[in-house]
Specification:
By secondary structure, the protein is an alpha+beta fold. It is built from six helices and twelve strands. It has two domains: 88 residues, PAS domain (Beta-Lactamase), CATH 3.30.450.20; 120 residues, 2-Layer Sandwich (Heat Shock Protein 90). The strands form three sheets. It has a five-stranded antiparallel beta sheet with strand order 2-1-5-4-3. A five-stranded mixed beta sheet has the order 7-9-10-12-11. Helix 5 packs antiparallel against helix 6. The radius of gyration is 19 Å and the shape is globular. The protein starts with a helix and ends with a strand.
Length: 227
């Protein structure tokens, strides 16, 4: 996979290429999740509806909602009659506490690996990783982060496999003291979730500066503060 292809693959915004008859030619990881909330036919109809009259690219600002997904705009492009592409731009789905995080410079991969290792001891669960390898060391309250992530894993302990994804939230930022910082996320998912443990997680998260987005997947959203 080329560097350019990796940018598309790890983009937080769904991207899909269709053939002229509505068959999917390619799509990124986020688009695969989106297809759990909307059909291929509906997405293809969106692409053809918002496409430019002639060849080229067209961006339209329009509010769309499919399940937990909310979008504020989409871009449709085509250069011939054989292939058409669509990219949907996700609306921010969360707020991060206004208080600037405190802590020490931390390697996020080391902490996540530590938590995965801890939770795999005496367990048959397979811990699967899908990491964007380019997240730098960031300022983080390591102790509370470990508590939060371990509690998240406990919410999925009745599964055979747990997937942990680390990715940039492309185009999303937060400001602290007039400085703008990018945001990345740690997303944990599995087939079944323990609602009782989710309640415990909410109580724990309420006493920290971490923002936890709890859906079927559980996501920790973290500002990328490096100094």
């Amino acid at each position: 996979m080329t560097f350019e292809q990796q940018w598309i693959e790890y983009d937080y915004n769904p991207f899909i290429l269709f053939s002229s008859n509505g068959k999917i030619i390619s799509l990124n990881a986020e688009a695969q999740f989106l297809l759990g909330a909307i059909t291929t036919e509906e997405l293809f109809n969106l692409a053809t509806t918002y496409a430019n009259v002639s060849f080229g690219f067209k961006t339209t600002f329009v509010e769309l909602e499919f399940g937990r997904y909310r979008f504020f705009a989409l871009t449709v492009g085509y250069e011939n009659d054989d292939v058409i592409g669509i990219k949907l731009y996700q609306a921010p789905s969360f707020k991060i506490n206004a208080q600037m995080p405190i802590g020490e410079l931390t390697n996020i991969y080391t902490l996540v690996d530590l938590c995965m290792l801890t939770n795999s001891i005496n367990s048959k669960i397979v811990f699967e990783k899908d990491f964007d390898p380019t997240i730098p060391e960031i300022i983080l309250d390591s102790n509370n982060f470990i508590k939060i992530l371990n509690k998240i894993y406990s919410c999925y302990e009745k599964n055979e496999k747990i997937t942990t994804k680390i990715f940039y939230r492309v185009g999303e930022h937060i400001k602290f003291e007039k400085n703008k910082y990018s945001i990345f996320s740690i997303e944990v998912s599995a087939k079944k979730i323990d609602e009782e443990r989710v309640g415990e997680l909410k109580s724990l998260a309420a006493n920290t500066n971490f923002y936890i987005d709890i859906q079927k997947k559980i996501t920790i959203n973290i500002p990328m503060i490096t100094s």
